[in-house]
């Protein structure tokens, strides 16, 4: 699979998720086999470029792979300038967000709210593609609401504008993340397009990934929520794609070491105050389904100390080895 001149040997991507796919998590997912990873969404508003949040999200130092930066906004001129700015900062690919369903994004007519205005979609895509000399990609949904799924029109507009690849989540904005993702329109879009297509939505197991790829004919899969609490999913996806079966399960020891390293990296990246706060959700995803995990999660969430958070988690993971040899996994 190619995006512009960039070859993707493993077409399994980590989807951009604001507040989740930061540098520590991208590095972790790449280590486990993700062949593509897009950074967290950046607002195209130039007045926000020097905020602490934006500076952290713009930190790609040491990125192991192609630097893909996602931008969001609703003004073609501002989006074009944001693309130019980020390319100057080192972006090798610019991704445009037309899929985020969050109210705070849609209320300013950005993200998936743009799908209501096809002429504006075209203006933004053309403006950004013309503004930079790097590949521009698009992340989007089936449409704004269930009665108007216009992905086929949006996909055609994207290809005509020069978009290098498109990632499609199999839900409308009104569905948010409820119900089940649908793939029929993604398959139809793939059949009509010459550019690569990522399929996204509800892909939480290697078996499901293989099924969705067969159904859609997509060039690659993009994993979002499925990676939360299990970055090793990418390892299993890659192995299953190559051999048609799951690899040997990882042990509690192996996964525990990864979890602790991830938490330590977040503390280092964000500092103690923010690192502890942001790590809480990841800890919940990691241990929530483990025996006694929910109780320990609540206890861990009471501390504001990075050292205490790490030590409490380490003790739980060490004790977990007395209950099971392999890390719990829903698809085994």
3D structure, described in words:
By secondary structure, the protein is α/β, with parallel strands linked by helices. Helix 2 links the parallel strand 5 and strand 6. The chain is globular.
List keywords for this structure.
332 residues; globular; two-stranded antiparallel sheet; nine-stranded parallel beta sheet; 13 helices; alpha/beta
Structural class: alpha/beta
The major β-sheet equals: 9 strands, parallel
Strand percent estimate? 5-15%
Q: Roughly how much helix do the residues carry, as a percent range?
A: 40-55%
Assign an overall shape.
Answer: globular
The average pLDDT is 95
Low-pLDDT segments: none
Query: Based on DSSP secondary structure assignment, what is the total number of beta strands?
Result: 11
Brief rundown of the structure:
By secondary structure, the chain is of the alpha/beta class. Helix content is 44%, strand content 14%. The protein is built from 13 helices and eleven strands.
């Amino acid at each position: 699979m190619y995006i512009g001149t960039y070859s993707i040997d493993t077409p399994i991507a980590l989807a951009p998720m604001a507040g989740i796919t930061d540098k520590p998590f991208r590095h972790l997912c790449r280590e486990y086999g993700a062949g593509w990873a897009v950074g967290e969404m950046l607002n195209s508003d130039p007045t926000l470029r020097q905020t602490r949040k934006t500076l952290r999200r713009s930190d790609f130092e040491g990125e192991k792979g192609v630097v893909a930066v996602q931008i969001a906004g609703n003004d073609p001129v501002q989006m074009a300038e944001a693309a130019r700015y980020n390319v100057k900062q080192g972006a090798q690919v610019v991704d445009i967000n037309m899929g985020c369903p969050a109210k705070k994004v849609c209320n300013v007519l950005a993200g998936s709210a743009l799908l209501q205005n096809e002429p504006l979609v075209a203006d933004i895509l053309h403006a950004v593609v013309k503004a930079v000399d790097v590949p521009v990609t698009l992340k989007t949904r089936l449409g704004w609401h269930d009665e108007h799924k216009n992905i086929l029109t949006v996909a055609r507009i994207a290809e005509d504008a020069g978009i290098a690849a498109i990632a499609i989540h199999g839900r409308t904005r009104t569905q948010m993340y409820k119900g089940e993702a649908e793939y029929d329109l993604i398959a139809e879009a793939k059949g009509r397009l010459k550019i690569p297509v990522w399929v996204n939505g509800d892909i939480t197991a290697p078996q499901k990934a293989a099924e969705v790829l067969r159904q859609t004919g997509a060039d690659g899969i993009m994993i979002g929520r499925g990676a939360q609490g299990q970055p090793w999913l990418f390892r299993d996806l890659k192995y299953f794609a190559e051999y048609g079966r799951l690899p040997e399960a990882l042990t509690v020891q192996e996964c525990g070491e990864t979890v602790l390293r991830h938490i330590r990296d977040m503390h280092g990246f964000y500092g103690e105050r923010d690192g502890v706060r942001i790590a809480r959700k990841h800890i919940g995803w990691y241990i929530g389904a483990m025996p006694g995990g929910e109780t320990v999660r609540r206890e861990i969430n009471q501390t504001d100390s990075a050292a205490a958070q790490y030590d409490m988690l380490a003790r739980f993971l060490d004790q977990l080895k007395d209950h099971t040899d392999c890390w719990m996994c829903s698809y085994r």
